[in-house]
Amino acid sequence: PKFLTRAEREALALKKREEQVAKQRETQKALLEKRKAFIQDAKRAEKERDREREKERKDREREREREREREKDTDREKDRERGRRSRSRDREGRRSRSRERRSRSRERRSKSRERRSRSREKRQETEKNDRNGEVKDERETDKDLEKLNEAIRQRYLGGQREKRKRGRRLHERKFIFDWDAGEDTSNDYNKLYQNRHEVQFFGRGSIAGMDVNAQKKQKSEFYANLMEKRRTKEEKQQEELRLAGVKKKEKKEAFDNRHWTQKNLDQMTERDWRIFREDFNISIKGGRVPKPLRNWEEAGLPSEVFDVIMKIGYKEPTPIQRQAIPIGLQNRDIIGVAETGSGKTAAFLIPLLVWITSIPKFHGNDEQDTVSFYLPIF
User: Fold this and answer.
1) CA 145 – CA 42 distance, rounded (Å)
2) How far apart are CA 213 and CA 205, in angstroms?
3) Could you tell me which PROSITE patterns the record lists for this protein (predicted)?
């Protein structure tokens, strides 16, 4: 092995630090570019939505103009038709003609008023719809922005958890309304109450000598025997196959519902792990938490560490050791809370010893090399 001088070690440390700073800057630059691209995409999508809304509004205006033109054409056609009919009629006299003219003028005025009122109502309705559409579009854009901000907040800051309300017990004990046998004081001074009379039933009957449950049982047995006699051989075989399938299904369900102590590690389900944590009072918070240890054999420890644990007499890991050791073996940080004497120190030291055993041993030539190798770096 080559032993470095202090200047070489400082140069290597500075170089490593510069590489780390460069990597951090690259990651920050990539994150900034992603955010800019995300914001640009959102602005582009908003512009496209505005364009589509403007196009739809123009189409609606064109359709309204066409509708107005159609109404005008129909009115003109009606006027022409009315003029033709009036010309074809016999002119009876001046009074009748003047009367007709007056009536026609009244009708025209009333119709023009109606048309104007209808057009005014349509115009107001279209303006109202346009306003409602604009307000609705603004609300939709606001909702989209709120959803986007909420998604970013949950992604980078984490969502808020709802606190459960704990209900207070109003009555710890239930009030019993019945009399207790010890509260009966009549046995102390009256002999009549010492031998109470009980109703004698005839045979096994509960109502006038008839037992309803016994009758139901006899009736069901009668119908079962009758159906058994009427069944053919094929139906009996089908019934046997059905019962065998039901038994097989029940057996499989009973096999799957075994306790976690009766299963192998590869047969454990999420429900079994949940029951395991409940049995040992283990509660966890965080993501990608590894499964706890069931025993020392499944931990995958080196032989020297495992032999020392067995020699000391740790037969079973404690709850804090069951969950903390797998996390420590993954070189991850953990905050563990447990009682005094529950094995927190061993839960910290066992992953440390496993890591130390994985480091190659150091073989120095002389004492000076050993001292120079362990000089601190400032």
Assistant:
1) 9
2) 10
3) Q_MOTIF
Q: Distance (Å, rounded) from C-alpha 293 to C-alpha 273?
A: 10
- Distance, in Å, from the CA atom of 350 to the CA atom of 293, rounded to the nearest integer, reads 13
pLDDT value of position 6: 84
- Burial of 146-184, coded b for 16+ CB within 10 Å and e otherwise, reads eeeeeeeeeeeeeeeeeeeeeeeeeeeeeeeeeeeeeee
Give, as one character, the DSSP assignment of residue 207: B
Do 224 and 300 belong to one domain? no
Residue 125 lies in a domain: yes
pTM above 0.70, yes or no: no
Percent of the chain with pLDDT over 90: 26
At 170 the pLDDT is 56
The number of C-alpha atoms within 13 Å of 331 and in the hemisphere containing its C-beta is 3
Same domain, 213 and 324: no
Residue 272 covered by a domain: yes
**Is the CA virtual torsion 115, 116, 117, 120 positive or negative?**
positive
Instruction: Render pLDDT for 79-105 as a digit per residue (tens, 0 to 9).
Output: 888 877 777 666 666 677 777 778 888
Q: Which domain range does residue 14 map to? A: 6-79+112-154
